[in-house]
Specification:
This protein is α+β, with helices and mostly antiparallel strands. It is 48% helix and 22% strand.
């Protein structure tokens, strides 16, 4: 018998405990979002034991822990005989404790660092005191040789997410990394979110103006401000000044920026 539901009302920890205690075999499919990014993954269970997990390009324990960072989404469990390489050998209880610990730690770290779309770069004027870095910290630091957003850095750095975020937080705290105040990043997820809002509020013509004036990716803040003003003028012609102002504020809120960029 299969199971379906959403992880907000039936948390993954409770679900996996249920499947384990009942000695089930099958695949748990998870589809959801983490920080706006759409994700999907699988947990392979054989007679109540977790034997493997996959998510993005991750496998085994790392994938299992990553799935616990999903904020919202749905799951479905399909009973079946499992014939998959055993990449996880820990007991379910130990896996769960570590997954929940890493999930809590990562979420706390995210509260301490700037928003994920913030552009970060190596500080050209680092503190004068000597700071010793290990090889992993050097690797993360060098990832910001060219300005890049935190979310993009997390994607390209080949470390577990908790470790990457912790190192970024440390490098920011000691002053080896800093925010780039001249650039802004508009990720695909945020861009799509704003596009849906514009389309719903103004229709195809409003969406055309938005895609004409606002581009995805890293752009200069002065250029962004100028384009935002041009977009506002066009949106006023499609509705009125209040609706246009509300839309501009929605864009700024979505990008975690204040009224003056």
């Amino acid at each position: 018998m299969g199971l379906e539901g959403n992880i907000e009302s039936f948390p993954l920890a409770d679900l996996i405990t249920l499947l384990s205690n009942s000695g089930k075999s099958g695949i748990l499919y998870i589809n959801g979002k983490k920080s706006g990014e759409t994700l999907s993954g699988e947990v392979h269970i054989k007679k109540g034991k977790i034997v493997n997990a996959t998510c993005k390009d991750l496998k085994g324990e790392e994938a299992f822990y990553f799935l616990f960072l999903i904020d919202e989404g749905n799951f479905s469990f399909k009973p079946k005989e499992i014939d998959t390489p055993v990449l996880i050998n820990k007991e379910v209880e130990s896996l769960m404790i570590e997954a929940l610990r890493m999930s809590d730690e990562t979420k706390e770290l995210y509260k301490k660092i700037p928003p994920l779309n913030t552009i970060i770069e190596i500080n050209p004027n680092p503190p004068e005191n000597n700071i010793e870095l290990n090889p992993e910290e050097w690797q993360v630091l060098n990832s910001f040789f060219n300005p890049i957003s935190i979310e993009d850095a997390i994607k390209i750095i080949n470390f577990p997410e908790t470790k990457t975020v912790k190192i970024i937080y440390t490098l920011l705290s000691v002053g080896l990394l800093k925010k780039n105040e001249k650039l802004i990043n508009i990720s695909t997820n945020i861009y799509n979110k704003i596009s849906e809002y514009i389309d719903k509020t103004f229709g195809p013509k409003g969406l055309y103006f938005f895609t004409y004036f606002i581009e995805k990716g890293i752009i200069d803040k002065d250029k962004f401000n100028n384009n935002l003003e041009s977009l506002k003028k066009e949106l006023i012609t499609l509705s009125n000044e209040k609706v246009a102002n509300d839309t501009i504020n929605f864009i700024k809120t979505s990008l975690n920026i204040k009224n003056k960029v």
